[in-house]
Amino acid sequence: MCPADPGPLPSAAPRTELRGSYEAGIEDGMSHIRKALELDPKHDDAMAYLNLLFRLRADLEDTPQAAQPDIAQANEWVQRTLEVKRIKASPQPAPEAAPPASEPPRLIHVHGNVQAENLVRRLDPEYPALASPARI
């Protein structure tokens, strides 16, 4: 086969043998790739592989008419892949940084033992003799 003559395979015997050997694997692969696309809808490599699996399945069909829906699906996945690759390649604007939330100032409580540890020298005040009885 050549790219100008896409599937299905021209001879029925090899086509039947290959379908028996690979059809389940193709379907399994498609199922796994669809699951990957559910998790990441912009996974361009998965899209490209799904395109290839549709083309492989089209090659195993009995008639060109039966292969047409798979080829159409493959072409659709090629377009989706190119679109996602184009979006990923375009420069994305940097997200704007959110302004810092303005919080009211909080009081910080410092206990006496913390300040006492910072004390270098203790100076007791000297009060005049009359200040103490007057409670000044």
Kindly describe this structure.
This protein has 136 residues and is mostly helical. The chain has a domain at 13-87: Serine Threonine Protein Phosphatase 5, Tetratricopeptide repeat (Alpha Horseshoe). It is built from 4 helices and no strands. α1 packs antiparallel against α2 (44-59) and α2 (44-59) packs antiparallel against α3 (64-89). The longest helix is centred in the N-terminal third of the chain and has 28 residues, at 12-39. The radius of gyration is 38 Å and the shape is rod-shaped.
* Number of helical stretches of at least 4 residues: 4
Name the CATH architecture of the domain at 13-87.
Alpha Horseshoe
Distance between the termini: 110 Å
Q: Report the structural category.
A: mainly alpha
The CATH class of the domain at 13-87 is identified as: Mainly Alpha
SSE string, helices as H and strands as E = HHHH
What is the 3D shape? rod-shaped
- The overall pLDDT, averaged over residues, is 83
Q: What is the total tally of β strands?
A: 0
Outline:
The protein is mainly alpha-helical and 136 residues long.
Indicate the topology.
Blueprint: H1 12-39, H2 44-59, H3 64-89, H4 112-118
Helix pairs in contact: 1-2, 2-3
What brief labels describe this structure?
Serine Threonine Protein Phosphatase 5, Tetratricopeptide repeat, mainly alpha, rod-shaped, 136 residues, 0% strand, 4 helices
